[in-house]
TrEMBL record:
Protein keywords: NAD, Oxidoreductase
Species this protein is from: Alicyclobacillus sacchari
The protein's name in its UniProt record: Tagaturonate reductase
Any single biological process term in GO: mannitol catabolic process
Molecular function in Gene Ontology: mannitol-1-phosphate 5-dehydrogenase activity
Catalytic activity: D-mannitol 1-phosphate + NAD(+) = beta-D-fructose 6-phosphate + NADH + H(+)
């Protein structure tokens, strides 16, 4: 994969002829799989549409990134994104060549080249993904001309270089968009950068410039991106070698808190791209946690108890598919919808989640989702149940069935399922105290384990009886028939169906 190859292959779709004339506007800290299939792809879409979104200078945050940096150089910054999945109910399987990357730098061997980017006025945006562990405070000395150890320290040194190059010009401030999956990622990164600056006794005027004229946005990202494995079963064959190719689902979402000034440069909305510049990203975090993660947690133990292996296995079973979809539309979306500002965005997200669950190219293991499932349920599922009961005076029957399956998965005879969850021991011990009874007392004790659930679920109206009945059905008829019967007894309203 090189520009010469593309020039000789007219049938290869690419926006290279457009991107080459676009100036460098973005420094990206992180050369890994996710950003290649997410931010770099999005910026390439903007450039290809004729807008000056900017080209990207990529820098590795760690020495281990040197291999990818070399691959970018060998491939002239080009690589392939294979979009594979379901979008609006239609199967998508296509390849796109991304040309938004202009060059790549290894700061650990090319620190002066990295700092030189700070002296390019037009490079005024930083995008990063250094994993959740990348945004941490690690004390370290500052020595001019020497590379810093961590990402926040590198950024502090970079911004100090920029401050000096432009004599503290307020117009030289930067916008920082961290994509690391931690809450308040922008605010936390800003605090650490300021702390390093103060540790190093850099001029107070610089620290004031840093605080006043640089914008650190909190963001939330969502897309599954994996390395391309050309030898995998069913993998398409590329007509060229590509060491940087990635596979991405069609779905993508980037919520950016603030950053309104970027909308003119990056008109994502008019291009049909799911990037949102919003005053607060809490609505987007809430819908992701409750709809996507909540449905995942609800299906994981249910599927494993029925010997299913993946999310696709669950969604390929008519009973379980109906259960998951009705749980989302009848119980989760109405409760989340009362708390978010844009119901249309929420409903679109819910439809996209169901498409994502049905992705035939993605094999998302239920054992992975079920790991620490009780702790996850406390955040992802229990709040919906509590809020539903508070609003309607009754507990949600399908979410109750999900809780029943979480409890039933802790039954001692189910230990062979291999679910890794330290809280499982707590519920298994309650089961051992009452193995042969009708389970009514046991269910109450299970739901009263507030150290597991975060509250006393047994106090919610009707929930103990629902959980007890679902467990009884599962023990007598098996999980599939139990859920089928429960859906029959508790049909979704027509308005809840989509």
């Amino acid at each position: 994969m090189t520009r010469d190859l593309l020039s000789s292959q007219s049938d290869l779709h690419t926006s290279c002829h457009i991107s080459q004339s676009v100036p460098e506007r973005i420094l990206q800290i992180g050369e890994g799989v996710f950003l290649r299939g997410f931010a770099d792809w999005l910026i390439d879409r903007v450039n290809a549409a004729g807008h000056v979104g900017g080209r990207i200078v990529i820098a590795a945050p760690r020495p281990s990134g040197a291999r990818n940096i070399e691959c970018f150089r060998k491939q002239d910054g080009l690589y392939t994104v294979l979009l594979r999945g379901i979008e609006d109910g239609v199967t998508v399987d296509r390849q796109e060549i991304v040309s938004s990357v202009s060059r790549a730098i290894d700061p650990h061997n090319e620190w002066p080249d990295f700092l030189a980017c700070a002296r390019q006025r037009e490079i005024d945006v930083v995008i990063s993904n250094t994993t959740e562990l990348g945004i941490q405070y690690v004390p370290q000395a500052y020595v001019a001309g020497q590379v810093q150890q961590t990402y926040p320290a590198k950024l502090a040194a970079y911004l100090y270089e920029r401050y000096q190059a432009f004599a503290g010009d307020p117009q030289a401030g930067m916008t920082v968009l961290p994509c690391e999956l931690i809450d308040d990622n922008g605010a936390r990164l800003r605090d650490i950068v300021i702390r390093h600056s103060e540790d190093w006794a850099l001029p107070e005027a610089f620290v004031e410039w840093l605080k006043s004229y640089n914008v650190f946005c909190n963001t939330l990202v969502d897309r599954i991106v994996t390395p391309f494995a050309p030898d995998a079963d069913g993998a398409p064959q590329l007509p060229y070698a590509d060491q940087l190719a990635v596979v991405a689902e069609p779905f993508h979402m980037w919520a950016i808190e603030g950053g309104d000034h970027l909308q003119t440069r990056w008109p994502f909305a008019e291009l049909g791209l799911s990037v949102y510049f919003v005053p607060r990203i809490e609505d987007y975090r809430l819908q992701k946690v409750r709809v996507l993660n909540g449905a995942h947690t609800a299906m994981a133990c249910l599927g494993l108890l029925a010997q299913k292996q993946t999310v696709l296995d669950v969604m390929s079973h008519p009973v379980f598919q109906a259960f998951v979809e009705e749980l989302i539309w009848s119980e989760i979306v109405p409760i989340v919808g009362s708390q978010v500002g844009d119901s249309e965005v929420l409903e679109r997200f819910a439809r996209d989640v169901i498409d994502r669950f049905r992705n035939p190219f993605l094999h998302h293991a239920l054992t992975s989702i079920a790991a620490n499932s009780l702790a996850k349920a406390r955040i992802r599922l229990v709040p919906t149940i509590v809020e539903y009961a508070a609003c309607r005076g009754a507990s949600p029957p399908l979410a109750a069935a999900a809780i029943a399956m979480l409890c039933y998965a802790c039954y001692p005879s189910h230990e062979q399922m291999g679910i890794e969850d330290p809280l499982r021991v707590r519920l298994a011990e309650i089961w051992r105290n009452d193995l042969d009874a009708d389970a009514s007392g046991t269910v109450t004790a299970l739901l009263q384990a507030s150290d597991v659930w975060g509250c006393d679920l047994a106090a919610l109206p009707g929930l103990p009886g629902m959980v007890q009945e679902v467990i009884r059905l599962a023990r007598e008829r098996g999980v599939v028939e139990a859920i089928a019967e429960w859906l029959h007894v508790n049909p979704a309203s027509e308005t809840a169906r989509r």
